[in-house]
Amino acid sequence: MFEQARKSPAFLSAALLLTATLTAPGALAQQDTTASPISAATLPPLPADKYLWLEDVDSPRAMAWVKAEDARSLKILEADPHYATYYAEALKIAEAPDRLPTPEQRGGEIYNLWRDADHVNGIYRKTSMADYLTAHPTWKTVLDIDALGKQDNVKWVAKGLDCLYPGDHYCMVALSAGGEDATTQREFDLKSGRFVPSGFILPHSKQDVAWLDKDTLLVSRDWGPGTMTASGYPFIVKLWKRGTPLDSAKEVFRGQPTDMGAAGYTLHDAKKHSLTLFSRAVTIFENQTFVLTPAGPKQLMIPAKSRIAGLLDGRLLLSIDEDWKPAGQLLTFKQGSLLELSLSRLMKDPANLKPSVVFEPTADEFLQDTALTKSRLLLTTLKHVQGRAYIYSPALTGWTSKQLPIPENVSVSIDSTSDTDDNFFLGVAGFLTPPSIFLGDAAANTLTLEKTEPSRFDASKDIVEQYEATSKDGTKIPYFIVHPRDMQRNGANPTLLNAYGGFQISEKPSYSPNIGKLWLDHGGVYVLANIRGGGEFGPAWHEAGLKTHRQRIYDDFAAVGEDLIARRITSPAHLGIMGGSNGGLLMGVEMTQHPDLWNAIVIQVPLLDMLRFEHIDAGASWTGEYGSVSNPAERAFLASISPYNQLKPGVKYPEPFLFTTTKDDRVGPQHARKFAAKMEEFHEPFLYDEIIEGGHAAGANLAEQAKTWALTYTYLTSKLMEK
């Protein structure tokens, strides 16, 4: 998808998004910087690990093991009578020509990244606004990713565009080999549909690129030995001029090797204000922000746990994830608030700021996302996990707001805004409500339904309810349940429970054709739990499960499972669980802590070895969420919950299905491999699927993703429905 705004550096977005979308319809408590530093050398050595050889991702020995396990498991799953039908249905859904084309507004036109049977890796295409609003738009191909891949002999996966303001004429196209987070970037002329001759080209690296002006880029990347952090991200930002060699780029900002990473970017507004910022991510949740001044970068004295949300009408917007009492002021601003800072004031004195409130959370409504049009602010919230949307208009002093008419029991997303007018697109969907696209005019406060995707399954026989479970410490944990209207409470309903529980990522109602067609249509029950660690109830909901408090998250999830059983919706024999990435860690913990509570466990692109996660791919990024083995108390806790280390011989575990990809350079396939190998050592049954391409996702193209879902629901059907 095209990137609309640069709210945070790309490396931070990648690290945060330990993809919850793998399992949902539709990574880690704040690092304690006050703790006494303790050298890892003073701690006892980690337990001997006989499967370290599986961490050598592409070694012949490791790949031989992978191929053998893949072949064994696929032989079982593909022979199941449900598999062929499920694959055909999943592929039909994935390639459906009447899917909604998500719009991106650029340069007065509508762009879209589209994949189908004829364009496996996708095409960037465009049309006019008027044509887009018709039932059958006529699209013009701008860039064919499949053709480019054939030309370059690389399986390119599109990773987005970053375009020059104003007008979006020239863009840096990010291309990933097989879905990795690392990209190659090339300058592209969006108007002519051609790569710029002798334009900017950035070779393969984990990198962040932003336009300073037409002939200048701000680039953070691998500049050579000693320029990448332990997390695998760059910490040196350089200014690169057009027509000069990349190695002549001049350093303009530097973080520290111990940071997560650093990047630079520029904000603009319609009144011709601009602001160049540098972000130094000390941890995944703690940032230092610097303003570029004629005298060089000056630190903006904002909370460490805050995010820049954009520039509008000469006001810098800032969301804060911790309470903040600015220097020299009496007022304390509440965590979860959106604030404004005067641009002229902060440029004069970035150390003494006088913020004011734009939005403040209530007891049950919390900020989720923001985006800007030419003259307005769009803001989405969750009110008891129900989607809400608002238009905020800047006034001479303060702001006025208007709530938009969004249906109940849905989630709302900001699909696209424009920096040249006040048009915006909202996406709306629910568990049983197919996605719709609304066109709004923020200046006129209007919202019109434009497109709705056809139903992909029969939702007429199902209903959605919201319940609460009581966790071990008494906290009420809400969860959604999607089930047949005539469901019998007899404990025999095949039930799939999903959650994520980390990185302040909210799990919301959304439409999954695969869950609907391959699970609900067969009489299955689907449950989404809003456990702690997420952002459904603001920053405090996330912080409650940080580091050594993380057992609360696992207790929350188990409590929802127990509540489903107590309500006689299901029973352990018919209860399955599924989660990906950080949610895959959740699955591993639940498997080892409560092996008798579930009969099926889908573990996708997971973290599982929590004593070595800091040394695998981007794992060092997430010590702010999970803690670190260099801290004795955190190490002891990590050892107590680490699924890889808590696997025991002689325990009757459910037979899990583990899925990962070789080209996942975020979490890595190492965790899934080692966990499976230890299960094999203990003579415990498991199923394993590792595909090569896909990065930290279900596959690199629609066919691979369809196969992943077909295998997943074949497994779940065999475990939970055929009893």
Task: Summarize the helices and strands and which ones pair or pack.
Blueprint lengths: L9 H7 L43 H20 L3 H12 L9 E3 L2 E8 L2 E9 L1 H4 L7 E5 H8 L3 E8 L6 E8 L5 E7 L4 E2 L5 E5 L2 E6 L2 E5 L15 E6 L8 E5 L6 E8 L5 E8 L5 E7 L2 E5 L5 E7 L2 E6 L17 E5 H6 L7 E4 L5 E8 L4 E7 L2 E9 L4 E5 L7 E7 L5 E7 L6 E6 L4 E7 L9 E9 L5 E9 L10 E4 L14 H6 L6 E5 L9 H5 L7 H16 L8 E6 L1 H12 L6 E5 L18 H4 L5 H10 L1 H4 L9 E6 L8 H12 L5 E5 L10 H20 L2
Parallel strand pairs: 32-33, 32-34, 34-35, 35-36, 36-37
Antiparallel strand pairs: 1-2, 2-3, 3-4, 5-6, 6-7, 7-8, 7-9, 10-11, 11-12, 12-13, 14-15, 15-16, 16-17, 18-19, 19-20, 20-21, 22-23, 23-24, 24-25, 26-27, 27-28, 28-29, 30-31, 31-33
Helix pairs in contact: 3-15
- Structural class, judged by helices and strands? alpha+beta
Shape: globular
The neighbouring-strand order within the major sheet is: 30-31-33-32-34-35-36-37
> Radius of gyration in whole Å, from Cα?
25 Å
Question: What percent of the residues sit in helical stretches (DSSP H or I)?
Answer: 10-25%
Low-confidence stretches: 1-7, 15-21, 23-41
Tell me the name of the CATH class of one domain.
Answer: Alpha Beta
Largest sheet: 8 strands, mixed
Return the CATH topology of one domain: Rossmann fold
Mean pLDDT: 93
Strand percentage, roughly? 25-35%
Distance between the termini: 42 Å
Q: What's the total helix number?
A: 15
Instruction: Provide the CATH architecture of one domain.
Output: 3-Layer(aba) Sandwich
Describe the oligomeric state of these chains in a short phrase.
Answer: single chain
- The fourth-level CATH homologous superfamily of one domain is Alpha/Beta hydrolase fold, catalytic domain
Q: How many β-strand runs?
A: 37
